[in-house]
User: Fold these one by one.
Assistant:
Number 1:
Amino acid sequence: MSILAGEAIYLFMYAAFKNGDHVIVHSPGYQSLAEVARSVGCDISPWMAREENGWALDLDELKKLVRPNTKGIVINTPHNPTGYLMSRADFDALNKFAQENNLLLFSDEVYRESEYDLADRLPAACDYGEHAVSLGVTSKTYGLAGLRIGWVATKNKTIYQNMASLKDYTTICNSAPSEFLAEVAMRHRVKLAERNLEIIKDNLTIVDDLFSRHPALFTWTRPKAGSMGFPKLLKGDVEDFCDDLVLKAGVLLLPGTMYDESNNHFRLGLGRKNLPQGVERLEEYLSKK
């Protein structure tokens, strides 16, 4: 099903859940993954990723979050904003747990194929069975945000048909030119992903150097996939820092509070070619503090 990413989250939540259902959601994370379920009337429990664990999710903690009315689990891997990538063993165990407990698994995979090490790539969750729905887009790994095209894939015919029926009452269909261009792009997706990964890896080296020069101010768990990281500001308030930085240096960082995270982290984008210029401006800003 060709679909917008945000639209897919909306359609899945309204097709799969109802008022009073309990849903476990990977946190911190992309706001819609929790908020759309809340709009349905679901009770949300955050499945917390913690930096002291390398932003990994704890499967034992997941088991403790399950209630009699739990209907689903929502995850995002590779993860926005931390760049965390679940291990194959944990991903296998998660899918097995969902199947054994009759839970739906919504797997946000919009950064899939942007792994820094190809050996770390996970299967799509939808390939594990009818319990899972996978979400993909052209905008992240392939750098084609302007097409506004994504997709959902699942073996669950009921969920798929319910989503398709809801789509008929909302957007009906996507732009035909965008769908055509997206199809062309997917035929060349390996080349597109390689191009963008080269930019990200070059930028990672620059950011590593930046943080090595300012160990008293920044720390981070280096990402394993995707186009962002989630460093921590060690001095001051992260919202004040980000606000002052964009006003005085023109460098935009996203404070972790936008992800309901209050431990002074901020999201740093790694996918732009002009990141070196941004780092130069950041260094100039820091030199004046």
Note: The first strand starts at residue 2 and ends at 3.
Number 2:
Amino acid sequence: MLRFHAWSDNSKGALLLMCAAALLTISVSLIKFAGERIPIIQLLFLRQVGMFVMLSPALFNNFPQALQTKRPGLQLIRVGLALIALLGGFTAVVNMPLADATALGFSKSFFITVFAMIILKEHVGRYRWAAIAVGFVGVGVMLQPGTSGYSIYGLYAIAGAAAAGLVMVIIRLLSRTESSNSIIAYQVFGVGVVTVIPAMMNWVQPTNTEWIVIAAIGIVSFFAQRSNIYAYKHGEASLLATLDYGRLLFAAVIGYYVFNQLPQLSTWIGAGIIVAAAIFTVYRESKRNQMLTRTPGARGFNST
């Protein structure tokens, strides 16, 4: 077997991306486990504390420059939307089968395209409009409105995906004038500050096991994000963005073996439609040399 450094760049990127997908799925599985007893707002606050600890060396090396910004209003809007995205995503993960929440989260790609057209004035042709329409048909198949299979938590997942999509467009705007350290610092500090009081008001003392799980959420999320970034340093963005949808398989396996939740037929049909439409959207973007939905930060609950 060839040593890793001798592999092709795309092979390296693909392997690292699969590691990131597995780690991200483990992270949301840990959130689902801890969320059975710990309030979601408390989990979100503790996650931010964990991220701050993991990112503190980089942040302190650039302090106070990391907090300097030319667009404080836009930074605050981004923090508010990130809070909505994380709360919506966490709520869906805790209360829905893991595969369902994961698949609905993929709808973020469609929201990114729509918001990019409105805010960034990017051109969206008829093929991508068709892909977006088909993608939302898949969302409808999964949500099953008006039937006994309908769950309000599916709307939380969609709200989280929409907010996350808008966050990605705002990050594109911020990146024109702000440093990456500034964007990261405001997210870490901002969401942490906003959640500290409600977390304290709803505090449930974690058990020793839950403290270990909470610490693991921060550590696993950090390495998932790093693996994702390194993957895109090696592989082609359009290729890796399509492979990222393999997270659905990880979620289905963990959901079945850990949480005893087997996805329904409607989940597989709807998820298949969503993934196919999202992959086509990525393909069309690669043709037009646009990269919003195929950048490392454009996927997963970690992105916000």
Note: The chain has a mean pLDDT of 82.
Number 3:
Amino acid sequence: MKAEIITIGTEILIGSILNTNGRFLSQKLSDLGVHVNYQISLRDDFNELVEQINESINRSDLVFLCGGLGPTEDDLTKDALAHVLNKEIVIDPNEYDHLIAFFNKIDRKMSENNIRQARVIKDSKILHNDWGIAPGEVVEYQNKKVFLFPGPPKEFEPMVTKYLAGNIGEKNDILIKSLNVVGVGEAATEDRIRKLHIEDSEISINTFAHFSETEIKIIAEGDDKSSLKIKMDNIISILYKEFGNNIYAEDNVTSPEALVNLLIEKDLKISFAESITGGLLTSKITAIPNASKILKASYITYSNKAKIKDLNVSNDTLIEYGAVSSNTAVEMAKGLYKKGDCDIAISLTGEAGPTPSEQEIGKTFICFNYGNKLEVKECDFKGDRREIQERASKYVISHLLLKLN
């Protein structure tokens, strides 16, 4: 089943907002075994919308129109689709009542143009919006399906989650599994998989890089679900034999979540001393439920003064070797561990840029202190400031998963 996603809004094309809807919907469709062949962003232009909708319907089974369902005159998605399908647009009484109730609830006068959001294409299936005003819709046309979803992510994401699977239909049985790998790299992961020769006409395997992690996505697609499951289980077994402890989790479990769960399982406590990452690493851990069971302390020692005061780093070390050095990283990790109440103390210090002060941009020193057994890593991360900080944080999480798994 082939799909394409059309995100609508001039604000996307001029960079005023980030198009997160396309990514979210692509992930959901991929998980359902639907192949997304195109993602397109368009301005709020009636003629361009009509032209693109015609082209998309001709070449795809499922077409998703995201955005352009608001109350203003430049919200033209519904009008363009109705024009293509030669369908009438009508006011839905239930959606009109919902609209009135919404404005009464927030004690605000409804503008006349808000009534546009109660309009629907005649004979469409209405997807009621519990998170906003404008409903979604599904329209069937020439054995194809066209979906309309509102653009704001706070409405779009829950509506996709609620309505997508039950409305796309099925042409065959599909099984999907993801294995998440660290410490190998996408190119090496892909090369090792191809050498196993485990794909066939019903099984496809692809890899996707996520900084220091790689997702292996296995899709089994055919007419016999029980036969597909046997194949899928066999392939998963082969991949576990090939990659072993490099597989840290399955499906939608993130690496921070996997690390928190692993530390809880092993009853280990952890603390961080962050300079280059400025608290980013800690925020990744605290975003996970039950992080309080494993995270004991976190220090952002961005300045030399903070390194000396909070972690007892020697001023002589800072003068002789610099703040961005293995020596400073070691003293940071030692000072952190001496504060007590943790099994693992980790320090990071480096150059995030864009202007170097002591080392080349991306140079980072990370010290892992396992009960005064020290392990120092010297890394050279590429990218801009944000990417370097992200890569440093992900590196720590990946390294711990490999070390402790």
Note: The two ends are 38 Å apart (CA to CA).
Number 4:
Amino acid sequence: MKGFEVIFIAPRSRRHEGQPVLDAVAEVAQSQGIKRMTRRDDVAGTGVNGHAHSAHFFEQADEPQELMFVLDGGEADKLMRAVEEAEMHVFCVRRQIDYWQYGDA
């Protein structure tokens, strides 16, 4: 099948209306009926302003995280538009992909 991989990236400490921003993105996705997603913790990253984000032994609040979705074009557009309209401060990557589901869902 053809679709899009949509990845939202932010440090764990980033908030939107009091909750972690990637939790807010996940809530928007769930409200749109999107059930499949993957969350990853990254070791390090550098933001648009050049600030390095990383997970330290004692402090993990600045750890970069990713929230990834595999969606068809309409779902991807709708989710990205909703995140933009909510004015969430989050980086997003969208790339066209081919994907398959093997076995029973």
Note: The longest strand covers residues 2-11.
